[in-house]
Design a protein that fits this description.
By secondary structure, the chain is α/β, with parallel strands linked by helices. It has helices spanning 33-36, 61-70, 83-94, 122-134, 136-148, 154-166, 173-185, 189-193, 213-221, 237-240, 242-262; strands at residues 5-9, 14-19, 40-46, 76-81, 99-105, 199-204, 225-230. 44% of the residues lie in helices and 16% in strands.
Length: 263
Amino acid sequence: MKQLYWNIYGEGDCDLVLLHGWGLNAEVWHCIIDRLAPHFRLHLVDLPGYGRSKDFGAMSLPDMAKIVLQQAPEQALWLGWSMGGLVASQIALTQPERVRGLITVSSSPCFTAHDEWPGIRPEVLAGFQQQLSEDFQRTVERFLALQTLGTASARQDARLLKAVVLQHQMPAVEVLIGGLDILRTADLRPALVESALPMLRIYGYLDGLVPRKVASLLDSTWPHSQSVVMKGSAHAPFISHPDDFSKLLIDFLAHVDAKITLK
């Protein structure tokens, strides 16, 4: 039977599941484990087809969420970065009783730009799909470099992301293309309007993939959620600003616990 890679760290009472982004794996979280371990029981997951979960092929967003839930704790805070934010959001929509709160990081309910909605231009995503078939490794490295562009520690952060990818077998081309399909087609905006779960959305001020304008647009339509735009950070704020990022998660746990106590 196929199983996802899971690893658990920490001594906290609250389960926190961390879902990585496109092309990467759970090793990307190691820069914040020591900061969070006293407060959470951390569940680090390689998404289907990525890292040590390489036995899975490409799949749809609902199927990916279903697979992840099979090994998840009964109830947890769910954090998803970039594409992982879509997976965590899908889980919150389909199994809200399993979710104490939702945290999305440099993520968007709709990654593709259209009409007045800011995001990645469709032709850019289509170009990445074409380039994956032509020059697999260089395309992944280019995408990783885009995630740190503009920060004071951009080169160092890009090297860290590259090391995370190279630490394990690279995902299959069809898995990466499937991930880009999710980024290109998913739109969870209407569904998430109805959600009443506690939600924290974290953005990077310099993010070139998920523009900070997304934060203000969702502030007006998702009153149940709160947003933070981290100055000086791009698409990977937990790497460039690990202390500030970790404090946001710890403060959010206190917020969720307070809401539960009030009930």
